[in-house]
Amino acid sequence: MLSLKTAIGLNSNLFRFAFSRQIFLSSRKQVDSEEPPIDANETATPITVGLEKTINSVTLLGRVGSNPVKRGSLEHPVVTFSLATHSNYSYPNGEVSQKTEWHRICVFKPYLRESVLKFTNKGQRLLVQGRIIYGEVKENEGNFRHTCSIVADDVISFKNGA
């Protein structure tokens, strides 16, 4: 009985694929893992990659905490508002507790920015899809304060009472 290495062939791409992990990036480039060669005579040839695929995705369903406000400059306007989400916890004694998290939502897309500004009100239920960003703000005293915001790519509103 032939071994798998002999049946497939030592230098074939199928053999390399069968015995090494492959990472595919956006269906464009392929990267071999940094595993040692199977055979002492075989040499690994790493493939360099320019860009890799990453995911930064946030989906929030909650209630608007403050009416949207237009900020920024004429060249770079932004609409911001707060969104509240909560988690419920139940304890063995039957007590139920609720923790509320507040999120700062920023809308930069022109069509979405104007729609949010016009049709969103405090207390309204919204689904926000976007990405999280972190930053720093220098306060008047010279101290730096860390910030966290959600940049909205899509905002879906629900009817009140729904």
UniProtKB/TrEMBL annotation:
Record has DNA-binding as a keyword: yes
GO MF term set: single-stranded DNA binding
Any single biological process term in GO: mitochondrial DNA replication
One GO cellular component, as annotated: mitochondrial nucleoid
Keywords recorded for this protein, A-Z: DNA-binding
Superkingdom of this protein's organism: Eukaryota
Keyword DNA-binding: yes
UniProt cross-references to CDD domains, sorted A to Z: SSB_OBF
UniProt-listed NCBIfam families: ssb
Protein name as annotated: EOG090X0O5J
